[in-house]
Amino acid sequence: MALARERDDLLTTVRGLDGFAEFLRPPRLTALLPAAADGPIAIINVSASRCDALLVRVNGVQPVHLPHLSLDAVIDHTNDYLRVLHQVDQAAHDLHTARKEVESGPPTPGVIRRYSDAKRTYQRATVDRDDTLDALLRWLWDTTAEPILTALGFTGRPARDTPLPRLWWCPTGPLTMLPLHAAGHHDPERPAGRSVLDRVVSSYTPTLRALVEARRPLRPQPANDRILVVSLPDTPDEAPLTNVERERNLLAALFPDQHTLLEGEHATAATVLEELPRHRWAHFSCHGGQDLRNPSHGGLILHDRTLTVADLAARQHAGEFAFLSACMTAVGGITLPDEAITLAAALHYTGYRQVIGTLWSVHDQTAADVAEAVYAHLTVTGTFTPHAAARALHVAVRQLRDSAHLPMGAWTPFTHTGP
User: Fold this and answer.
1) Which segment of 42-46, 104-108, 300-304 scores lowest on mean pLDDT?
2) pTM above the 0.85 mark?
3) Distance, C-alpha 103 to centroid of its chain
């Protein structure tokens, strides 16, 4: 009882400080509704009893029951999804190891056989991944995305010259692991329109409060507008990334006098943490990884060590835009999925309002293609316009799906977090 009284006294003292009147109080709805200033937010609650969406608009909240969505089904689909992604990652690692063995000297019959087996295993794993993704995206559309879009009035594909509306996803529980932004029936032989990509421009937000904060004016920053480019084509103990130089050259051409390059052995964790506060924009081209059981240990694999979620979450930034051209930068953990412990969320929470990341491993050529398309969109006027990041990413992903006809595993991972 004494500790409870002491806590109450401390809360009273803190709430008497300027700007802390609402400290540890539930946020008021009126303070959260402005998060929907540029478009609705779909908060999806997944529980054992029932599943619902709360559709947040500036004038209020509309509940939508999702009768065909269940916690058990979400868990089953999430497990299948994580299984096939892990199989592809493992097969890619084994293929890289076998290729190095072939290239290290005159190949023996045993070495050639191991390489051939590893290549076939990788090909089977990618086919399994894309088949599982296809079924997953159809199920997400039927049970979750289409009922939400219908309730919001987004019932068809807008006219060609009409800008797509914006929609923010705020999933909970194991649904946080799944690509809601890509839900749909992506059958090229059927009329388009039965997918999220065809009806809205998607973004994610970890919470309503985070989106409200991200809409506030940028804090003053001592340095001029510059972009920090972290480029690691060759990282110790990792497979080479042959397209990283392509991204580096692109950014050097677009920002000739406004970029700081940290490359190779100069791209250390300490140097990156030192330089981030001096730059309003950042682009990372490197390997990334996530520990699904301890997600705060996941992060960007730099020259000397991993720059972790915990490293970034311990600091504040006055950033505007971050492009994480690396694997698994927008995926959290399986033990506390509601905590949104991802690299993208960490940068967003600590001050970067626009963050592009990935849900799983991506091929570096595809990442470079997306980067080229995104920056082309953001610099088309002759000046850099990072506030258009969500639409730029949407256009890039649609190009991969519709023009390049890449498999689902290639274009589905890319996500946008922020306003």
Assistant:
1) 104-108
2) yes
3) 35
